Structure to design on (137 residues):
C-alpha cells in the first residue's frame, strides 16, 4: 500500500488525478495487502475497478487472493500482468511480464520496483516523478 501511495503521489505531482483503494487482510501488518489505483487526466468519480488495465503481483498470498476474486479472468488481451518470476502464472488473456523482483530487490522493495517497471511500459506519467519519491523515502 505504501508503494501504491508513492505511485499516486507521483501521478498527482505529474498533473494527473489518482485514487487508491486498499484492502487489508486479517493479517494486517504481517501479511500481504492489495491496492487498487486509478490514474486519469480527468476527475475520478468511482474508485472500483471492474476491468484492470494492469495488475502487479509480487507475493503468493496476493496471487491467491486475486485468483479467488476472479481478477485474472476479467483481464482482456489489452491488460498487462506483471508477475514476480517466483510465482506460477495464472490463466489470463492479459500480456504477462515476469521478473525476479523479490530476488533482485528484496521482498520489501518488490512492489516499488514492479510499479517502476509498469511505469516504463505504460509511460502514463514521467518516471522521474516516481523515482524522486522512491529516493525520498
Amino acid at each position: 500500500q505504501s508503494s501504491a501511495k508513492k505511485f499516486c503521489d507521483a501521478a498527482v505531482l505529474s498533473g494527473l488525478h489518482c485514487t487508491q483503494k486498499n484492502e487489508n487482510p486479517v493479517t494486517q501488518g504481517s501479511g500481504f495487502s492489495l491496492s487498487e489505483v486509478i490514474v486519469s487526466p480527468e476527475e475520478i468519480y468511482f474508485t472500483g475497478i471492474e476491468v484492470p488495465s494492469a495488475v502487479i503481483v509480487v507475493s503468493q498470498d496476493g496471487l491467491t487472493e486475486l485468483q479467488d476474486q476472479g481478477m485474472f479472468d476479467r483481464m482482456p488481451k489489452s491488460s498487462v500482468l506483471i508477475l514476480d518470476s517466483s510465482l506460477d502464472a495464472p490463466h489470463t488473456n492479459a500480456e504477462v511480464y515476469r521478473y525476479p523482483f523479490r530476488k533482485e530487490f528484496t521482498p520489501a522493495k518488490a512492489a516499488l520496483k514492479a510499479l517502476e517497471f509498469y511505469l516504463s511500459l505504460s509511460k502514463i506519467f514521467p518516471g522521474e516523478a516516481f523515482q524522486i519519491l522512491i529516493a525520498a523515502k
